[in-house]
Amino acid sequence: MTKLILALVTLSLLSLNISADVISKVKKTGELVLGTSGTMTPMTRALDDGSAVGLDIDIAKTMAAALNAKLVIKVIAFNKLIPALKNGEIDMIISNMTITPKRNTEVAFVGPYMTSGKCLVTKLTTLALAKDAKALKQSAKKMAVIKDTTSERFVRALMPKIELQTVTSQEDAVKLVIDDEVEALLTDYPVCMSILQSNPEAGFVSAFSKLTYEPIGIALPANDTHFINWTENFLQRATQTGLLNAFGHKWLGETKL
After folding, report:
1. Same domain, 111 and 127
2. 27 shares a domain with 100
3. Average pLDDT in the 193-201 region?
4. Considering the domain boundaries, does residue 105 fall inside one?
5. Does residue 208 lie in a domain region?
6. Are residues 222 and 103 in the same domain?
7. According to the 3-state scheme, what is the secondary structure of the chain?
8. Residue 135, domain extent
């Protein structure tokens, strides 16, 4: 009897880690649920009506259309996205999310659909021209980052003496730079491009360089092999047909991701 109870408990615990088949759910409900932070223009930007726009959103809309489903967008704080995916609140994450070994232990990733890197938004030429963490440490004392991103981990690991201001949106980080409360904002390459284009009068230096390798991917439930396989094939087709490059041109001004 004890062995039977143990077996039933073990089976119950294992079932908690088995994600429902998203494609079957989508066929039943007619909805594909996206989780995105909405805080990283031009990849994902939340609108006042609760929806979002950006390169990531266009990818998600195309996925929903391919599944003959309505896209439901849930704007969630970046550090809450993976928990929301794991508990079934959302079906996928497309939110300028870097594929990291740590994140990949919790969820599956398909991609990358683009390769990014870290760069700076600053008024100081010496910082904008920095090629590595050593050069940054010599020129900066205060820096802003979006909380719980790879940007924050990059600074804490390689520049521990720099005073960090963590914020929840790029708008807050940009304001810190404009108001001279920090010397720079460290963020992802496409976000840098958008900030520079959107703030022509801010005095930001437009010379910047990629500092790290950032493979950006689509996060999916860890055990849903069907949806993972479907998304791999979708992404391959989107790449080969030029659809991803079209989105890159639309949102980043680049013809190739």
Report:
1. no
2. yes
3. 85
4. yes
5. no
6. yes
7. CHHHHHHHHHHHHHHHCCCCCHHHHHHHHCEEEEEECCEECCCEEECCCCCEECHHHHHHHHHHHHCCCEEEEEECCHHHHHHHHHCCCCCEECCCCECCHHHHCCCEEEEEEEEECEEEEECCHHHHCCCCHHHHHHHCCEEEEECCCHHHHHHHHHCCCCEEEEECCHHHHHHHHHCCCCCEEEEEHHHHHHHHHHCCCCCCCCCCCCCCCEEEEEEECCCCHHHHHHHHHHHHHHHHCCHHHHHHHHHHCCCCC
8. 118-198
pLDDT in tens, 208-252: 556 678 899 999 999 999 999 999 999 999 999 999 999 998 998
* CATH code assigned at 103: 3.40.190.10
> For residue range 168-196, what is the model confidence (pLDDT) as tens digits?
888 899 999 999 999 889 888 888 888 88
Q: What are 83-114's pLDDT values in tens digits?
A: 999 999 999 999 999 999 999 999 999 999 99
210 within a domain of the structure (yes/no)? no
